[in-house]
C-alpha cells in the first residue's frame, strides 16, 4: 500500500484523465475499485456534468483501497470553476496539466484534496514540490494528448526522481507490465497510463475509437500541433493528415473553451468526434506506443496483468527500508 500524505492506495497506478468524455465515471470507478487512482477528465465539461460524473463515480466505487481524481487542463477557460466543483464534491485528487497554475495550490490548501501537477521538467517539479504538491506526474513526449516536452519519459525521469522527495508517477510509454517495471526502475513511485485504459470495456468512447488503438501499427502515431498551442500525439487519420498538411480548418462557431486558442481548428469538437467514432472528422489522441495494445479487456484484467510488477516493487521496498 502507498501512503501519499494520508491518501492510501493499494496499487500505484493512475488512470490518465483523457478528455473530452473519454475518462468518465464508469472507467474512473472501475480503476478505483481495483485499488488505483481512477480519474474523470473534467476539461471542457459543463460544471454540472462534472458534478454529476463525480457523484456517479462515488456511487460506483464499492471497494476501499483506491481513490477518485479529476484531471483539468490549466489551459481550459473554466479552470477555476472546474476546480471549485472538485473541491465542493470533495474528490480525493486533482491532477492538472497543459500549463502550470500557482493559484491552485492555495485553492486546495486545507481541503484535504491531494494535488498532483503534471510536469515535464526538473524546474517545474521543484516548483511543484516547493509550493506543496503531494505528488507529481512526470510526463514525457511519448505520452498521448498534449505534451510539454519533446523528450520521451525515459529520458527525463531519472533526473527528476533523483532530485525531489515527493512521490513521482511516470507517464508516457507505459503500455505493458514490462514498461511499468522499466518506469519504476527509474525511481518512480508509480505510473500513469492513459492509452492502455482506452482499450477497456469500461471506457466511454465508441468501439471505433478503441479499434483505432487495436489496429494501429508502430509508426502510425504522429505529432500534430493542437489549437491549444502545444504539440500532441495522435493516431494517423484523415483529420490528422489535414492538420499535418496545414489545411485551413477554421471552425464556424466557438465556445471559447480555451484561454488561448489558435482557432486554426477546434480541438474540442475533433476530439469529441473521435470519441464518437467519426473516422473522417475525428482526432484520435494516443501515446506513441499505443501500437503495443492488441486487445480490449476489462480494467480488472489490466490490474491482474500488472499485479506481479507492483507486488515485486513493494517487496523490494520492504527489503531496502
Q: How is this structure best described in words?
A:
The protein is an alpha/beta fold. The chain folds into 2 domains: 2-203 and 293-313, Alpha-Beta Barrel (TIM Barrel), CATH 3.20.20.70; 207-291, no CATH class. Helices cover 37% and strands 17% of the residues. It has 12 helices and 13 strands. It has an 8-stranded parallel sheet with strand order 3-11-10-8-7-6-5-4. Strands 9-13-12 form a 3-stranded antiparallel sheet, with helices on one face. It has a two-stranded antiparallel ribbon with strand order 1-2. The longest helix has 22 residues, at 299-320. The two termini are 14 Å apart.
List strands and helices in order, with pairings.
Blueprint: E1 2-4, E2 7-9, E3 13-15, H1 25-33, E4 37-41, H2 47-60, E5 67-73, H3 79-88, E6 93-97, H4 103-108, E7 114-119, H5 122-131, E8 136-139, E9 145-146, H6 153-161, E10 168-171, H7 177-185, E11 190-193, H8 195-198, H9 207-215, E12 221-225, E13 231-235, H10 238-244, H11 267-275, H12 299-320
